[in-house]
Amino acid sequence: MTRVHVLATGGTIASRSGEGSGATAGDSAEVLLEGMDATADVEVTSEDVMTVGSYRLGLPELATIARVSRERAEEPGIDGVVVTHGTDTMEETAFLADLLNGTDTPVVFTGAQRAADHPDTDGPRNLRQAVLAAAHPNARGLGALVAFDGLLLSARGTRKGHTMVSQPFTGGTLVGTTHGDEFRLHARPHRPGTLDLPDSGLDGVRVDLITAYPGADPAALPSAVDRCAHGIVLAGTGLGNAGPGHAEAVADVVARGVPVVLATRTLAGPVLGVYGRGGGADILAAGAVAAGELTPFQARILAAALLAHRPDPHEFAARFTRLR
Ligand SMILES: NC(=O)C[C@H](N)C(=O)O
To answer: What residues does substrate bind to (predicted)?
Structure first.
């Protein structure tokens, strides 16, 4: 019999309104599975990793979740792993899990937009679809995925694009769809490679995200380094541009040994060094590494995972460019 192992981490799928200051995560994996309709032919086991809203997570917790997901994926008796997680930062943890997953066993993230005690909660349905996708033979080798409201998206490239609708995720590759108990594979996601974390995980690693906007102060870059950032992601405008002073600020922090990744705050498309006068061409010439098509949030996760190994700047640039 196919076995799927569920890792619960919290989020709205595990939250109830209760009394007091708003919904909080509290339901265990066991409670989540009690609310889910049984799945014929799939044995479901589970464990609790943590029980928090994903807006409270830091990099060490992301590393814990991603590592446990990989360890379970490596277990011979487990055919698929499901991670229940808050939607706010699912795109970060799922991408880290994708980077770490060198096995053929899929790791399928899911959650809910409406709390467990909401009359129209979407959690049990999403969980069931995630379990069925994780159990499916066609899901093998797909890395980490996000199953939500009938769609299965690649972890790489996806982002939360709406605060409250039932399908909040956008971007990424549409890998498959589920309809009832039927799962269909449409495409295989682009996965350029995997990596390991050191024993210390992401403890102590700091990567700051700085956004370009009209009138933005380029001093945000050196002050991030003063506050001990090991790396910076600059979310530029459009193709990866920023206003006066940013290219010089990039050159300054790169000279101090702190890598800068140039991403775009635009929803889709690659970073390209097209514009001068401080635009992307100058920022890349100042030593920034292009994020390619990675979102700023996922570029930050890749940068953190690489910086955990304390690479020299050339090694960082080469590994980032290979895995982006
Ligand atoms: N829908 C959700 O799961 C949002 C929740 N606040 C979280 O990210 O934990």
So the answer is: 54, 87-88
C-alpha 70 to ligand 1 mean position (Å): 23
From the CA of 13, how far away is ligand 1's center (Å)? Answer: 8
Cβ burial of 19 (10 Å; 0-12, 13-18, 19+) is exposed
- Cα 127–131–134 angle (5° rounding)? 135
Across 131-159, average pLDDT: 97
Model pTM greater than 0.95? yes
Domains of the chain are 2-185 (3.40.50.1170), 207-323 (3.40.50.40)
55 lines ligand 1 (CB under 6 A): yes
Ligand 1 binding pocket includes 12 (Cβ within 6 Å): yes
CA of 63 to the centre of ligand 1 (A): 18
Percent of the chain, pLDDT > 70? Answer: 100
| Interface pTM, i.e. ipTM | 0.96
